[in-house]
Design a protein that fits this description.
Chain lengths: 293, 138
C-alpha cells in the first residue's frame, strides 16, 4: 500500500499540472479575444469581395476573350492543390487531428487526382513530412499573428500554379471559428471559383446590374482574382488561429477540471489510508494496554 | 434622392470607415473620380497609391491614403476595397518621407539591377501617397 508521503507527492504533482493548464487556459482566453477581433474585422472585406467578384465574373463572361482567361476556365480536376491550415502548437484537444483526418479523407475521396499539398502550420507539416506526400509549400510560425502579407506569400505560389495550369483546382481545409465552444471544420473549394452564393447572401440580385466599368470587366477580374485568393487564405488563417485558441481554451479547461477530480479522489484515498493507519495504531495501543493490564 | 451616401472603406485587416458622406474623391487607376449622391453604378480599380478624401455628413473633410484595390458604387453606397489603407491621423509623416526618399533612390539605382523595378515603383507610390495624404489640406 502506498504510504502517506507518496500520496502527498502525487497530489502536489497533479496540482502543479493543474496550475499550468489553468495558466494556459487564461493565456488562450486572452489570445482568443484578440484573434476573434481580427477575424471579425476581416470578415466584411471577404464578404464584399465575394459580392464584387460575383458581379464581375458575370460581366466578364460576355467578353469575347473570356475563354482565354485561366480564371474562368473549368478544367477537369486532374491535379488538385490542397491547402491545409493547422496550428503550430498542440495541446488543443482534437483540433489538429481532426484537420489532418479531414485532409486524409479528402485525399481518399479523390483517387484519380494527383494531390499537391500546401501546408500552413507545423502540425500538418510534421504529419505529411513523415509520409509520402507531394508538398509544394510549407509555412510554419506564421499563424500566431497572421498578417495580410503572410497570406499573400502563401497565395502567390498557388496563384502561379493555377495560372500556369499546373493545378486544376484548389481546396482549403481549415477550422472556422464559430464560438468559443465550437469550431467547424471547413473544406472549401477556392478555385475554380464556385459562386453559388451561400444561403441568404445578397449577391444574386445585384448580379444583373448594369455597371459602368472603368476597365474592361475581364481585366478587372484578372486583377481581382489573385486578391480573392489572398483574402480567402488570409481569412482561413485568421479563422484557424482563433479556432485554435478557442480549442485550446476548452481543452485546458477540461484538463483543469480533470486535475481537480484527480486531486479530490487522491485526497479522499489519502485520508482513508491515514485513518486506517491511526485506527491501527489505536488498536495496537489498546490491545497492548489490555495485555499489560 | 437621398442627399448622402453610405461610404465603406475596408482593408483585408479591418473596416476603416463606415459613415454617411456627401462626397467622395476616389483615386481610380485612370484618374480621380468624384462621387456624389445619385451616382450611376460603377466598378473600377484603384491607383496603386493615392489619396482619398471624403466629406462626412457633418461637413468634416477627411483624408485617407489608399494603396490599390477596387471601388464599387451602387445605389446610395460606395464601397472601397483597399489592399491597404491608412487614416491620415495614423500616418507617421517623418517615416513616410524617409520611405519616399529611400524609394526614390532605389528607383534611380535601378540600372545596377539592385532592386526589382516593380517593387521599387510600388514602394515609391505608397510612400508618395502617404506623404500626400499627410500633407493634404483639410
Amino acid at each position: 500500500m502506498p504510504s502517506l508521503i507518496d500520496f502527498r507527492r502525487r497530489i502536489r504533482s497533479v496540482k502543479n499540472t493543474q496550475q499550468i493548464t489553468k495558466a494556459m487556459k487564461m493565456v488562450s482566453a486572452a489570445k482568443l479575444r484578440r484573434a476573434q477581433e481580427r477575424v471579425i474585422a476581416a470578415r466584411p472585406y471577404a464578404a464584399r469581395m465575394r459580392e464584387m467578384l460575383a458581379n464581375l465574373s458575370q460581366a466578364a463572361q460576355s467578353d469575347e476573350r473570356a475563354s482565354e482567361s485561366a480564371w474562368l476556365a473549368q478544367r477537369e480536376p486532374k491535379n488538385i492543390d490542397l491547402v491545409l491550415v493547422t496550428s503550430d502548437k498542440g495541446l488543443a484537444g482534437a483540433f489538429n487531428s481532426n484537420l489532418i483526418k479531414a485532409s486524409q479523407r479528402f485525399i481518399a475521396e479523390h483517387p484519380g487526382a494527383k494531390i499537391s499539398l500546401t501546408l500552413v502550420g507545423r502540425k500538418g507539416r510534421d504529419f505529411y513530412k513523415r509520409r509520402n506526400a507531394e508538398i509544394v509549400g510549407e509555412y510554419v510560425n506564421i499563424l500566431a499573428k497572421p498578417t495580410y502579407a503572410d497570406a499573400a506569400g502563401v497565395a502567390k505560389e498557388i496563384i502561379r500554379r493555377y495560372r500556369a495550369g499546373e493545378t486544376d483546382a484548389v481546396y482549403v481545409i481549415n477550422n472556422d471559428f464559430k464560438s468559443v465552444m465550437t469550431q467547424t471544420l471547413s473544406v472549401m473549394q477556392l478555385l475554380p471559383v464556385n459562386l453559388e452564393a451561400p444561403a441568404g447572401a445578397t449577391a444574386a440580385p445585384a448580379a444583373t446590374l448594369d455597371y459602368i466599368y472603368e476597365q474592361s470587366p475581364l481585366d478587372m477580374l484578372e486583377q481581382l482574382m489573385p486578391r480573392y485568393v489572398e483574402v480567402a487564405i488570409f481569412r482561413s488563417m485568421l479563422e484557424t488561429g482563433a479556432a485554435e485558441h478557442a480549442a485550446r481554451m476548452t481543452a485546458m479547461d477540461s484538463a483543469s477540471s480533470n486535475a481537480k477530480d484527480v486531486i479530490e479522489a487522491l485526497t479522499l484515498y489519502m485520508n482513508r489510508v491515514r485513518q486506517a493507519a491511526i485506527t491501527k495504531e489505536i488498536i495496537e495501543v489498546v490491545s497492548g494496554a489490555a495485555a499489560a493490564g | 434622392m437621398a442627399d448622402t451616401l453610405l461610404f465603406q472603406l475596408v482593408s483585408p485587416e479591418r473596416l476603416l470607415v463606415e459613415t454617411q458622406v456627401t462626397e467622395v474623391q476616389i483615386p481610380a487607376r485612370e484618374g480621380y473620380i468624384g462621387v456624389l449622391p445619385g451616382h450611376a453604378p460603377l466598378l473600377s480599380e484603384l491607383k496603386a497609391g493615392g489619396v482619398l478624401t471624403y466629406r462626412a455628413a457633418d461637413g468634416v473633410q477627411k483624408v485617407v491614403a489608399v494603396y490599390g484595390g477596387f471601388v464599387e458604387v451602387l445605389g446610395d453606397r460606395v464601397r472601397v476595397l483597399a489592399d491597404s489603407a491608412e487614416n491620415r491621423e495614423e500616418i507617421d509623416v517623418t517615416a513616410a518621407q524617409k520611405a519616399l526618399v529611400q524609394a526614390t533612390q532605389d528607383m534611380n539605382n535601378m540600372q545596377g539591377g539592385a532592386a526589382d523595378p516593380a517593387v521599387a515603383m510600388d514602394e515609391a507610390m505608397r510612400a508618395q501617397a502617404r506623404v500626400d495624404a499627410a500633407s493634404a489640406k483639410v
